[in-house]
Amino acid sequence: MSIMNILTSEQPKEAQMAIERNLSDKELWIGLAEVEQTSRNGVLGDVRGGFTNAIAMANGKANFRATVKRGLDDLGLRLIHLKEAETLKTRLSKHSISEDLERTADEVKSTGEVGFGTFHTFDAE
User: Fold this and answer.
1) What is the pTM of this model?
2) Would residue 74 count as lying in a domain?
3) Is 5 part of any domain?
4) Among 27, 47, 94, 108, which has the minimal tally of Cβ within 10 Å of its Cβ?
C-alpha cells in the first residue's frame, strides 16, 4: 500500500502570508521515518507500520523531529525512529531524490506543512 505526498490543501491568503513570515528562518529538512500505527486498519491499512521519507521546514534537527512527529500524529501514526535527518541542501549535495520527493519539497516550502513520500509498509512477524 502506498500513500503519496500527504499535505494539507490550499491555504487562505492570510494564512499563507503568516506561514511565509514564520518560515523565513527555517530551511527544508529530510529524514527517513519509521512509523507504527496507533490502531490496526489505520491510514496504512491492516499493517503494523512502515517507512517513509519526511520533509519539513525546520530550524534544526530537534525542531524537524518535533514537526514530523506532529504531522504523523495527525495521521494516527507514531514516530519510532527518524534516521538520516539532515537539511535537504546537504542531502542533495551527496545524493539525488525522486521527482515525487522534489514535488513534495516544493509543496512543503510553499505551505509550511509536513510532507511524506510513499509509505513502505510492514507487518508484525
Assistant:
1) 0.79
2) yes
3) no
4) 94
The cell for 124 is 508484525
pLDDT, one tens digit per residue, over 43-63 is 999 899 999 999 999 999 999
CA distances 40 to 1, 53, 54, Å, are 14, 22, 22
Q: Determine the residue type at 21.
A: R
SS3 91: helix
Which residue range is the domain that position 35 belongs to? Answer: 13-122
Question: Does the residue 116 lie in any domain?
Answer: yes
Model confidence pLDDT, tens digit, residues 2-54: 344 444 444 566 655 555 555 578 999 999 999 999 887 889 998 999 999 99
Cβ atoms of residues 70 and 9 within 8 Å: no
Residue 20 domain-assigned (yes or no): yes
Report the chain's terminal Cα–Cα distance, integer Å: 18
Q: H-helix or E-strand containing 28? A: strand 27-37
